[in-house]
Design goal:
The complex is a heterodimer of chains A (247) and B (237). Chain A has 247 residues and is an alpha/beta fold. In chain A, 34% of the residues lie in helices and 24% in strands. In chain B, strands 1, 2, 3, 4, 5, 6, 7, 8 and 9 form a 9-stranded mixed beta sheet that branches. Chain B is globular. Chain B is built from 7 helices and 9 strands; from the N terminus they run E-H-E-E-H-E-E-H-E-E-H-E-H-H-E-H. Classes of the chains: A alpha/beta (247), B alpha/beta (237).
Chain lengths: 247, 237
C-alpha cells in the first residue's frame, strides 16, 4: 500500500499542540489505497512527547536526547521516513481533513512534479482563522520558475512548512540545510530549481500564530540577512554548475 | 587576482590555538598571483575572539555546521580551505592544493592528509585523482570516511550548490565531501600538509559524541542512494 509520511520535528513543551497536530492527521480523508504514518522526532535533552505520539496508531516517535536544532531534527526524522512522499507538519500547525488527499491528487494529476506547496490560513491565538494569500498563483510550476522571486526577496513565495515532497529528492539534496533561520528555504530553493512542482488552490492547513512561536522571538530576527544570503548563494551556485537531475 | 579563503569555525575557549592557526595561515607561501584571506566565524552566546582574520560572531550557539556555513556566506575566494580552530597548516599546504587544481583542471576538491603528533593520519584511498562517486562508494561500503575531511579545499561554488556543511549530527563534513564528490572528481594528496591536534577539549572527545553515529551514516547513505537514483549531476554549462 502506498504510504505518505507526515514529518514533524518537536520539542518538549509542545505536548498540547502536538496532540492537536496528531488529531488533525487522524481526521484525514485519505484516497482509497493510501496509508499515512506520522514520524515525529523530538529535539532536546529531556524528551517527553512519546506518549502523545504513540496514542495514535500511525504515530512513530523518536528522541535523540540532545539539542540539535530544527534542521538536524527534521533530517533525523527523514532517515526514519518509509513513505515515498513526505509531508511536513510543524508541531504547532494543523492539517485540514483533505490536506493529504489534495496533495496526492496533485501528484497523480501532474506526475512530473517533485513537490506540492499548499495554501494555509493563519490560525490566531483565539482559534479563529485569517486568510493568507500567497504571492504566487496556484498551478503547475516549471523548474527554476519560482526562484526569481526567491532571488529578489531572499525567501520563496510559498510556505515551506506545508510542502509535500518526494522523499528521495529531499534526501538527494541533503535535506534541510544547516542555515540558522532559513533551513527550509535553503532546501526549497534547490528543489524548485531542479524539479517542477505544483501550488494547490485549496487551503489545506492552518499555520498557528502565537507568542511562543520561534519565528516571533526577537533573537530569530538576527542572522536573517545572512540566512537569505546563503539561500541566494546556493541558487547562484546551482545555476553556475548547471546542477540537474536525469529523472 | 585569484583568492583562496581559509575558513575557520571557532568557539570562545580556543583563543590560544586560534592564534597558532592564524600564524600558520600567515606563514603560507602562495603560488605567484594568489592571495589568501582568513574567514573566522565564532559560535556561542558570548563571543570574545574578535580581531582574528575577517571575523564575525553568531551571537548564539548554532553548532559547527551552521557556523561554517555562515563563514561560507562571507567567503570571497573561488577556492575555500577548511582549517579547524585547533589545527595548523604546515608550510606549503595551500600551495599544494592550488597546484593540484592547476594540474587537474577537472577537479572540484582536494583533500590533504594530516600529520598527528606522533604519526601520519590514515588515508584509505591512494593519492591521485578520484572519479565522481569514489568517496561516496567508500563511505557506503565501509561506513567511515577514507580521508580526513578537515583537510578539504574545494571550489566555493560547488560547496554552496550542495548546501554547504550538512545538518547531520555527527558527520556534517563527511556528508559534504561525499556530496561534492558525487558531482565532480577530486584529488587526494598523500603528503601530510597540516597538523591535526588531539586534545581533551576536542568535540570528538565529548561524552555524547559516541551517540547518533548510525543515524549520521544512514543519512549519508540515503543521500547518496537518492542522488544516484535520480541522476543528480552537473550540467555542461
Amino acid at each position: 500500500m502506498p504510504l505518505l509520511s507526515v514529518l514533524t520535528a518537536a520539542h518538549a513543551g509542545r505536548a498540547d499542540l502536538l496532540a492537536r497536530a496528531g488529531e488533525s492527521i487522524a481526521a484525514q480523508r485519505l484516497p482509497e489505497g493510501w496509508a499515512v504514518e506520522w514520524v515525529v522526532q523530538e529535539d532536546g535533552p529531556e524528551p517527553s512527547l512519546a506518549s502523545v505520539v504513540e496514542r495514535f496508531p500511525f504515530g512513530r516517535h523518536a528522541a535523540h536526547g540532545e539539542q540539535l536544532g530544527i534542521a538536524t531534527t527534521r533530517n533525523l526524522a527523514l532517515t526514519r521516513v518509509d513513505g515515498e512522499l513526505v509531508h511536513v507538519l510543524d508541531s504547532d500547525d494543523e492539517l485540514l481533513p483533505d490536506a493529504v488527499s489534495v496533495a496526492l491528487k496533485a501528484f497523480a494529476d501532474f506526475p512530473a512534479v517533485h513537490w506540492v506547496a499548499a495554501q494555509a490560513d493563519d490560525l490566531l491565538p483565539d482559534d479563529t482563522r485569517r486568510s493568507f494569500v500567497l504571492e504566487h498563483p496556484a498551478g503547475y510550476v516549471e523548474p527554476g520558475r519560482m526562484n526569481e522571486f526567491t532571488h529578489d526577496r531572499g525567501e520563496p513565495p510559498i510556505h515551506c512548512a506545508g510542502l509535500t515532497m518526494r522523499t528521495r529528492t529531499v534526501r538527494a539534496l541533503g535535506g534541510w540545510a544547516a542555515n540558522p533561520r532559513s533551513e527550509d528555504s535553503a532546501l526549497f530553493v534547490a528543489l524548485a530549481e531542479l524539479t517542477p512542482g505544483y501550488v494547490t488552490p485549496e487551503v489545506t492547513w492552518l499555520h498557528r500564530l502565537h507568542t511562543a512561536q520561534t519565528t516571533g522571538e526577537h533573537a530569530w530576527q538576527t542572522l536573517r540577512a545572512e540566512s537569505m544570503t546563503m539561500v541566494r548563494q546556493r541558487l547562484a551556485a546551482l545555476r553556475d554548475l548547471g546542477l540537474a537531475l536525469d529523472a | 587576482m585569484p583568492l583562496l579563503s581559509v575558513l575557520t569555525a571557532v568557539h570562545g575557549d580556543r583563543a590560544e590555538v586560534l592564534a597558532a592557526a592564524g600564524e600558520s595561515v600567515a606563514a603560507q607561501e602562495l603560488p605567484a598571483g594568489w592571495e589568501v584571506e582568513w574567514v573566522v566565524q565564532e559560535d556561542g552566546d558570548f563571543p570574545r575572539l574578535s580581531g582574528f582574520g575577517r571575523y564575525e560572531a553568531n551571537g548564539a550557539q548554532l553548532g559547527v555546521a551552521v557556523t561554517r556555513n555562515l563563514a561560507l556566506a562571507r567567503v570571497r575566494g573561488e577556492l575555500v580551505r577548511v582549517l579547524d580552530s585547533d589545527d595548523v597548516l604546515l608550510p606549503g599546504a595551500l600551495a599544494r592544493a592550488i597546484e593540484a587544481f592547476a594540474e587537474h583542471p577537472e577537479i572540484h576538491w582536494v583533500i590533504a592528509r594530516p600529520r598527528m603528533a606522533d604519526a601520519v593520519y590514515f588515508q584509505l584511498l591512494p593519492e591521485g585523482v578520484h572519479a565522481r562517486g569514489a568517496i561516496g562508494s567508500y563511505v557506503q561500503e565501509h561506513r567511515r570516511a577514507p580521508v580526513h575531511c578537515a583537510g578539504l579545499t574545494a571550489r566555493t561554488a560547488t560547496v554552496r550548490a550542495v548546501g554547504g556543511w550538512c545538518a547531520n549530527p555527527r558527520a556534517e563534513d563527511i556528508e559534504l565531501v561525499a556530496a561534492i564528490s558525487e558531482l565532480a572528481p577530486g584529488y587526494l594528496d598523500g603528503t601530510p600538509s597540516w597538523l591535526y591536534r588531539n586534545h581533551d577539549g576536542q568535540t570528538v572527545r565529548q561524552p555524547s559524541w559516541g551517540n547518533l553515529h548510525a543515524e549520521s551514516y544512514l543519512m549519508i547513505h540515503q543521500r547518496l542512494a537518492a542522488a544516484r537514483a535520480l541522476g543528480l549531476r552537473m550540467g555542461t554549462n
